[in-house]
Specification:
Blueprint lengths: L11 H8 L6 H18 L7 H15 L9 H20 L19 H20 L2 H12 L4 H8 L3 H28 L1
Amino acid sequence: MRAVSFPSLAKADAAAAVQMNAPPEIGAIFRDYGPFVYTMLRSLGVRSSEVDDAFQEVFVVIHRRLATYEPRGTLRSWVYSICLRVAFRFRRRAGAMREIATEEIPETEDPMTPAEHLRQRQAHGILCEILDELDDDKRAVFVLFELEGLPMQEVAESLQCPLQTAYSRLRAAREAVDAAVHRHRARREFK
């Protein structure tokens, strides 16, 4: 798992263009939000073998819609809403596709020990399993608010739902995640 740093909400190029009501440039969006898009696609359930394709599709959609972009919310929430739609399409298609990845991942130097990698991979796998149990609406709110740390107002704008609906989905998602964590711990202790 590679470390990804998230862009700040006030990136110089893209944010300046939004403030002047000029459409931001695709290069600035790619540079400022590329890591965010990649991480969001993985968090939204896109299979690791398809993340690169989904990433490219997100930026193709951004490029196509850039001329019609209206800065009603933040640029980040607009980019996220595109990620959300692309991820949903990829997840829907995943059930029909049976692809076997054959490309080997190149080895890189890493300061983590193999045991730390294993624990991190296991924890990530458990989190993905838990998130897969949530419906798309609850998953999206949970990922944006709990994992990405976006304010709830921005989450609601990204998902194009009322603020109270977003809070309701978050509450339901938290309950479902808590229950899944308790089930996982109980299974592990039972062994």
